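RECORD TYPE: inverse folding
INPUT: structure tokens
STRUCTURE:
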């Protein structure tokens, strides 16, 4: 008797080829999913790479324009010095080419470039505030300011002007007492010792801050360091920042100083600033042509009856601030360059996009 193969008639049984087709479909879907994920990842990385490259290109292009503006500023300063030499006058005022208002320059790519030059000697120099009024210099013994015969505390001329500047703002208002505290803290920041003056602040004051830090024990390298000095509030720093500098030789150019700075030229026995109206009056008397001389300023109706120390008052400068701004691809960049003009040449002492 012959045996016959029995074919299963079970309803759930599936032919082997269909089972293999199902496995192949799953594998194909898995491969497709991996490929899609890989493509998405590559696309994301590619877009990020392109964006980075674009940012680098725009930044490089912007910086090139800003450096070009700086070179033009240097050329203007050199031409001005040559013109002054030919005219036989040693003076820098607001009528000269470098001091003219900003005129934006259209770029080929649709952007804009603008630049301005400011006389840094039209600001108060803060690195000479550490000098002791009695000793003539700060010898590092931590002694405070002396007392004159008439009982008025003795301050150097730069210190008096700084005290007046601190009190010259409507907001924030600073009392004479608070101004003295800030001055003493500034003196301690500059001197080379760690012994505080009578009302100053040294390491022992700042050690309790969070985070703690030490005094500089050196001259300021940036005006922004004033934010670290004791009793200096953020509001007061923003107010005085446009009127002080760490660059220069300590001279104050009366031909370019703004009204806020001219208000610091009060009588020697007065620590209060001139009024806002008196400051504006001095600017009006200066006019477009400037004061004839330092003596003409001191003999003006505003100052004629005051004993104003002329120490440090000048009409010429060698230190300038170039501020360049450029807009490329809807992105704005700024460059600050401190320029030193001397001997027919202009050197860049500092370039920064922030504090200077």
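DESIGNED SEQUENCE:
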């Amino acid at each position: 008797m012959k045996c016959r193969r029995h074919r299963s008639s079970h309803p759930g049984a599936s032919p082997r080829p269909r089972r293999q087709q199902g496995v192949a479909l799953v594998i194909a879907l898995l491969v497709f999913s991996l490929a899609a994920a890989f493509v998405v990842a590559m696309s994301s990385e590619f877009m990020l790479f392109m964006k980075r490259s674009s940012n680098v290109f725009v930044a490089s292009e912007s910086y090139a324009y800003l450096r070009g503006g700086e070179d033009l500023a240097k050329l203007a300063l050199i031409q001005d010095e040559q013109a002054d030499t030919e005219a036989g006058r040693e003076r820098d005022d607001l009528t000269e080419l470098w001091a003219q208002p900003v005129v934006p320059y259209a770029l080929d790519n649709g952007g804009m470039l603008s630049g301005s030059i400011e006389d840094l000697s039209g600001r108060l120099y803060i690195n000479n505030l550490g000098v002791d009024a009695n000793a003539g210099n700060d010898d590092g013994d931590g002694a405070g300011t002396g007392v004159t015969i008439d009982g008025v505390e003795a301050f150097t001329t730069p210190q008096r002007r700084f005290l007046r500047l601190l009190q010259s703002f409507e907001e924030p208002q600073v009392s004479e007492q608070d101004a003295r505290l800030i001055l003493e803290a500034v003196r301690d920041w500059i001197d080379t010792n760690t012994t505080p003056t009578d009302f100053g602040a040294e390491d022992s004051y700042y050690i309790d801050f969070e985070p703690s830090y030490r005094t500089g024990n050196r001259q300021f390298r940036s005006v922004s360091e004033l934010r670290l000095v004791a009793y200096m509030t953020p509001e007061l720093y923003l107010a005085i920042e446009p009127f002080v500098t760490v660059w220069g030789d300590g001279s104050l150019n009366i031909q370019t100083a703004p009204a806020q700075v001219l208000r610091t030229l009060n009588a020697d026995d007065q620590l209060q600033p001139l009024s806002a109206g008196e400051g504006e009056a001095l600017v009006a008397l200066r006019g477009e042509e400037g004061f004839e001389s330092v003596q003409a300023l001191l003999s003006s109706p505003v100052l004629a009856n005051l004993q104003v120390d002329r120490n440090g008052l000048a009409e010429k400068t060698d230190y300038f601030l170039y501020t360049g701004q450029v807009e490329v691809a809807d992105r704005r960049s700024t460059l600050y360059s401190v320029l030193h003009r001397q001997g027919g040449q202009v050197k860049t002492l500092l370039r920064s996009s922030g504090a200077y």
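NOTES: Residues 52-120+318-352 form a domain with the Pantoate--beta-alanine Ligase; Chain: A,domain 2 fold (CATH 3.30.1300.30).
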